[in-house]
## 1
Amino acid sequence: MPSTRTWDIFCTVVDNYGDIGVCWRLARQLAAEHGLGVRLWVDDLASFAKICPDIVPGRDAQHSHGVEVRWWREPFPAVRPADVVVEAFACNPPASYVAAMAARQPKPAWINLEFLSAENWVQGCHALPSPHPFFPLVKHFFFPGFVAGTGGLLAEQNLVQTRDRFQRSAAERARFWEVLGVPAPRAGELQVSLFCYPHDGVDALLRAWAAGGTPVRCLVPEGTVTAALTTFFGVEHLAPGAILRKAGLEVGIFPFLDQDSYDRLLWTCDLNLVRGEDSFVRAQWAARPLLWQIYPQKEGAHWPKLEAFLEMYCQGLPAETTAALAQLWRAWNHGDAAAIAPAWTGFWEHRLELQAHAERWAGRLAQSENLANNLARFCENVLK
Ligand code: TRH
């Protein structure tokens, strides 16, 4: 249903691609499914262009997928604030813009979109208001989450149907491999995608795969874990398109894909190694087993977050399967090279159970309302 509402989404790229990954997905969905006039302010268009090749770095204004994309830089232009203002991950909109929000009638709904966590406190903090210290403005915290009482997860309206169709259609998958420039998987081969931060466990896992009885084909985005790969394969450079082989392992380097193509990669692999926030969520929607590397935070703030998700995700799994999964996830996140090989063996033994569980989990997530719908409804209530 088209709306006359306007939205401004502010995004600073701290590092990596998660900040823009989340904002871009949200902006696209609000424009496409809610008919909203969405303006996305991004301070780093070069990072954005990696996951959306339409974007031309250096342009102040451009359009893609029904979204107006603006380069966020100083001096910030004197624009009229939108009806709804979303700052992603407490990125603080420019002072001049906040002053304009305070002067605007009616006042905008102001949202701080927070990081995803499975921890219990999230339900208590979701949707809480925070009055501005001196302007007549109220900001609301909006927390994504896995359970009722949180903001939910990003998921497009047709995500499950599109995924199911793709996973059932050999022709669609064959077309995908062709566009990627990679031969279709061979029978009996384990197909893995590997997106992670550099750590000592990478080499150990590559070794375990190379030595295992099942051939593994692992697809890695360019520019990630380069040091581990060059050392393991004894090569000097890695470019997109490179294929490296050692014993039972083949590694293919692919250029960063746009988000929709990356989704298809996750849907087609038997196992996805993902990181951060957005690829982690998309791997869950892929309904395939996953190995998550959480974004490491200062003072170990990420460990309770990892454990909270493990506890939630493993509900309903037999105890031995839970133990095998948790062992590999913990070894991977600690970069514990010595623990990786035995942990991989345990994980592999439980692969059928883990596959069935990944399908059940994705089905369970699909029963909840998605984040964009929850957020749009929440903001309408604030604006009333
Ligand atoms: O890049 P990340 O490590 O981002 C991180 C996290 O979001 C973390 O929470 C945040 O604090 C930190 O950045 C600053 O991982 P993430 O979240 O998975 O984001 C990657 C995005 O890139 C995601 O939207 C998927 C997308 N992507 C593509 O579109 N194409 C690709 O080929 C690949 C590999 C990823």
## 2
Amino acid sequence: MRLDKLLSDMDMASRSELKKNIRKGLVTVNGEIVKDPSTALNGDEKIVYCGEELTYSEFEYFMLNKPAGVLSASMDKKQKTVIDLIDCRHRKDLFPVGRLDKDTVGLLLITNDGQLAHELLAPNKHVDKSYFVRVDADLDENDTAAFEKGIELEDFTTLPAKLEIKADSKNEAIVTIHEGKFHEIKRMFHACGKEVVYLKRLTMGSLKLDESLKEGEYRKLTEEELADIKKSVV
Ligand code: URA
């Protein structure tokens, strides 16, 4: 890969600024000043750009505990997005895998691995997603049965889903769905005559929200988490 492309992928600066700085001698590769922006690299060299050592990664994977009030998008002209919360040096092509509503909190995988994202979101893979949910009225076995059967919404009938009502709090539950349609959980409860007042995603496939992450915090996936989630969609 070209040196200027590699630096651009890691979002160090605009391509033209990068070229200028490379030509000025502000970049070293394995300790040597390199002035040609088209220099071919493997990505495993020690690169220092304007005094900052950088680690190149072809793919990056972050687990974010999404807070409310932030959009699940890569970019937005007016509103803050989940990518704006990743404040460490990162690849410029990161995106969230799927969408949580603006007011939904919890687990969100952020990566630039399009293939993995595609597999996790593919409708035929039925990757399980579980949520903690609080609604505005008590739930009972009729709701559990309705979820188990699949709920008829205006435009489609949901796949069977699992509703586990909390023993000590009847308006709270863990819901597991096997698809990910727009506003699916809110619409399922609405169809049962209840409104969701709080929604938090806990799991996606084998990936579990790290409860030590406060809302708005993120961390890289561990190698084990990454291997497990990749395994779960092959
Ligand atoms: N279902 C919803 O209704 N909202 C979400 O954010 C996720 C699942």
